[in-house]
Amino acid sequence: MRRVFLLCAALSLCFIVFVLGVEERPLATRVEHFFLDSDRAQSLFTYFKDTFQLPEVWPFFERGTFASGGLSLGNVVLEFVSFPKEDNKPLKTGFRGIAFEPTADAAVTAAELTRRNIPHSGIKVYKFQIPGKQVLVEWSSINLSNFPPTNANIFFCDYKDRQAVAQRRKVASDELARIGGGPLGIVGAAEITVSVQDLEEARNKWSALLEPSPIISDDAFVFNTGPRIQLVRAELPGIQGIVLSVRSLGEAEKFLKESQLLAKDNAGHITISPAAIEGLAIRLVEK
Fold first, then answer.
1. Cβ atoms within 10 Å of 170's Cβ, excluding its own
2. E strands, 247-287, where?
3. Beta strand 135-143 with 56-62: parallel, antiparallel or unpaired?
4. Does residue 243 sit within a domain?
5. pLDDT score for 23
6. N or C end of the chain, less CB within 10 A?
7. Are 107 and 124 in contact (CB under 8 A)?
């Protein structure tokens, strides 16, 4: 009887440790990729690839309900997306989505989102053959619902073969490093700036989503790799822009000036001219 009691106690302790471990485990490991949406997505894809020499992660191609291409920023993938329009109105180009890599699979992630009372969609499964390559990519996605900013698509992307996907990402990242980050000397994406109207509400919801991920301030969420998420208050909600780390700000500025692509924001920070990239806000900082 004593042995049975001790065994039950041990099993109970293991269960408690397991449950606590699951509760303390972050939902997301990092930003896996983020995307911009534009009527001119393909031309922007080509422009960024040729002008800034960003290595291709996957070619731009039609995927049935949308078209997409991916380029490496070293520590994250920038996806260029074109969705079908419901009317003939031109779409303003902008950063519109952030995809997190989940620590667990889609089913466990969905269950944990429910436990955290975070509204979300059901699990959607996708499968595509990359043109010109014997590569079949399968993944599941879970979209967050009514999550600030509500005009952006914040979701989890669970690739079926994460090892193969990670290897393709590494090949592109290594290529960017080999060429010194291209003419801008890109080291990686430092930040995705997310603007919200109600900063306190957004802070609470993002904290509930990402805890116990490290936080360097009340409004900046940092992962071990990839860009941080920086929340800011603004009248216009959305993904405001991104910040790229470069090896030398002076060299990057020189290239932009020679290419007539140099601009500065209201705070005097060096940016890529928004006029050349369909109004996108991309600021540069030295690593």
1. 11
2. 262-264, 270-272, 282-286
3. unpaired
4. yes
5. 52
6. N
7. no
Structure tokens at 8: 């039950």
CATH number at residue 156: 3.10.180.10
Mapped onto helix, strand or coil, the DSSP state of residue 84 is coil
How many of the other CB atoms lie within 10 Å of CB of 192? 22
Report the DSSP beta bridge partners of residue 67: 62, 82
> What are the tens digits of pLDDT across the range 152-174?
999 999 999 999 999 999 999 99
- Which residue in 124, 38, 129 sits closest to 81, CA to CA? 38
Run means of pLDDT, 10 residues per run, the chain, 287 residues: 41 40 76 96 98 97 87 98 78 94 97 96 90 82 97 97 94 98 98 97 95 84 95 96 97 97 93 97 96
The phi and psi torsions of 258 (rounded to 5 degrees) equal -65, -30
Asked whether residue 282 is assigned to any structural domain, the reply reads yes
Cα of first residue to Cα of last residue in the chain, in angstroms, is: 64
Name all contacts of 15-24 with Cβ < 8 Å and 24+ positions apart: 22/112, 24/212
- The answer to whether position 8 is within a domain reads no
What are the structure tokens assigned to 10, written together?
Answer: 């041990």
Domain containing 180 equals 28-286
How many whole angstroms separate alpha carbon 108 and alpha carbon 91? 36
In a domain? residue 5: no
Strands of the 238-246 sheet, one edge to the other: 215-217, 220-221, 228-233, 186-196, 238-246, 282-286, 270-272, 262-264
Tokens read off for 205? 């919801």
pLDDT tens for residues 65-111? 789 999 999 999 999 999 877 777 778 899 999 999 999 999 999 99
Written as one letter, the residue type at 276 is A
**Which segments of the chain does DSSP mark as H helices, in order?**
2-24, 41-51, 106-115, 162-178, 199-210, 249-258
